[in-house]
Amino acid sequence: MGPGRLFPSRSAVLARRVAGAALLLGIANHSGAPVLRSGGLRPPAFRPSLPTPEQAPSAATAQDRVPGSLAETLAHAQQLIERRDLAAARSELTGALGAYPRDPGLRNLLGVVEAQQGDYRKAEADFKIAIAAGSRFTGAYLNLGRLYQENAAKDPRALKKGLEVYRRLLDFEPENVEATYQSAVLLGRLASFQASLDRLSRLPAEDQQRAQALSVRCADYAGLGETARAEGAAARLLAREDLAEADVLSILPVLESHKRDDLEGRLLEGLAERKLASPATLNRLGLHYERRGRLDQARQTLERVAELEPNSVATLLELARVANQQKDNKGALGYLAHARDIEPANASVHFFFGMVSVEENLAQEAYTSLKKAVSLDPANAYYNYAMGAVAVGRDDPREAIPYFQKYCELKPQDPRGRFALGAAYFYSHDYERARQKLEAAARAPETASGAHFFLGRIANQEGDLAEAVRELRLALDGDPNYADAHAELGRVRLNRKEYSLAEKDLLRALKIDPNNYTANLNLMILYQRTKDPRAEAQAGRFEEVKKRRAERAKEFLRTIEVRPY
């Protein structure tokens, strides 16, 4: 069941030395195309073999006329390849081209060298010459087919060309197991799922039950929407002793494109249970659990990855993201602190740390981390926005202005930048500049409510209470559940001594947001002013709310989706 026929002749010794030597490294180790594994059938990624005399009689005759010279060149080139001295091997082989320009064995071996050096077009040309010179040179056909499979990203026609190469090989060697299997693989990748199944059925019965064949069968059934059969093939695949990680990973694109997330998870879990999953595959399983909302399992799995790769910042960021979704912000900060120690110049780590610190009301930590993120990546619009959102809540809100200005510079079409800048001017008591920016932001639907809210606050500060009420009502027309607008309207009513209306607006704000600072403060003032017996309890409630005072940054971050991941 080998890939090509062994041949007796004076060149048989060389053939065995070349084809039977240690498998070539490099391309084999980075191959994207599967190789059908079985006890005696385990061909290398590229076959540095020679044709038989029947495959290329002219080459054999030429070798006989110049005894040993070509054989010695090929043998020495093989040794150089095994030592990874590809440049020397290439020099040796190209030097022989003058005497043997169309020798199929030489061209095939030169193609192997060029493939390993990443020279797709030259390797393709040499394998084609080898095939043309030895029309039934099995090894050259298989090499060319695999070259196409491994370069599908470079050549959009590569998969179809590879399929045609295998078809031509099967025309003269219909029992070739490797060509049959690779044809099935390519048909599946080309979404010809039924044709792929048909090709699998031509494999010997024993080979059809191997893990690799079951893997392709599982993908084909999934592609055809035959759920029960896909699940049955998956079960048989996971039970095979010859199961390898690549058998699962190779079919995940098909499962994903056909929305078989459940089957993907089952196969990944099977690899993990069999201890066949690499850290990268465990990571993929963890992300699968996260997508499915199984956050505890996601975190446990990603923790295993972190144990295997303790210096992986990417894994620590994923763990922080899952912990954040679990509302375990202290845990998230722990992962991020570790990541920060590993990569102190990674701006995204500092940014994520800062954003979680905002959620935890750790104002100084948020400020320090976001400032560092901006210093490392000053052209990141969202880092600037987040830094401005935190700075505006500090002692001098004017510090926020240059960060929002930078955001506006980087994203001039986004009205949310103008809104944030206008609000920063408001907190800096620069009402004229604030009004200019906010009036512009009020004309954009996504910022209209927020802009009217701040325009109402400006009017209230300037004593124009009627205008304040008008602007705040416009804010609530756009967003009836805008707690801050209800709270500010209650404050205006309080200033106008409309106590009943003020209480109604303030209670409405607290129904939406029980921890709203402005609403709690002004409800306390209202009760104290009206000698309401609830004043003492409300004063106690306000003291609790004061301890959570990092609301201004959150107010800004709600305006725009600034996500740490």
What is this structure's SSE topology?
Blueprint: H1 12-19, H2 57-65, H3 69-82, H4 86-96, H5 104-116, H6 120-133, H7 138-150, H8 158-172, H9 177-189, H10 193-200, H11 205-208, H12 211-224, H13 227-239, H14 245-249, H15 252-257, H16 261-273, H17 279-291, H18 295-308, H19 313-325, H20 329-342, H21 347-359, H22 363-376, H23 381-391, H24 401-410, H25 415-427, H26 431-441, H27 448-461, H28 465-478, H29 483-495, H30 499-512, H31 517-529, H32 535-546, H33 551-559
Structure characterization notes:
By secondary structure, this protein is mainly α. Among the domains are: about 1-175, Tetratricopeptide repeat domain (Serine Threonine Protein Phosphatase 5, Tetratricopeptide repeat), CATH 1.25.40.10; about 375-560, Tetratricopeptide repeat domain (Serine Threonine Protein Phosphatase 5, Tetratricopeptide repeat), CATH 1.25.40.10. About 70% of the residues lie in helices and about 0% in strands. The protein contains 33 helices and no strands. It has helices at about 10-20, 55-65, 70-80, 85-95, 105-115, 120-135, 140-150, 160-170, 175-190, 195-200, 205-210, 210-225, 225-240, 245-250, 250-255, 260-275, 280-290, 295-310, 315-325, 330-340, 345-360, 365-375, 380-390, 400-410, 415-425, 430-440, 450-460, 465-480, 485-495, 500-510, 515-530, 535-545, 550-560. α13 (about 225-240) runs parallel beside α16 and α16 packs across α17 (about 280-290). Mean pLDDT is about 85; it is low at about 1-35, about 35-45 and about 55-65.
